[in-house]
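Case study 2.
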Amino acid sequence: MIGLYKTECVRVDGPFRTVDELELATLSWVHWFNENRLHSAIGYRTPVEAEREYYRQINSQQHPLPGEPALH
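Prediction:
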């Protein structure tokens, strides 16, 4: 993870003049990494898309069908 950060953020966008500039670049990179990058292990979708689909599946499985008794 640190290698990716250094390669994709620090070396590409640097050098930085102040710590604040580095912090802002880091925040931007973390946001991109967590929400916008396409990931091959999850079908070239973003992590946010994969997480939404996961919870959509979980929530649809937890609700009983009409006429079925609820377990709670």
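Helices lie at 2-13, 19-35, 47-62.
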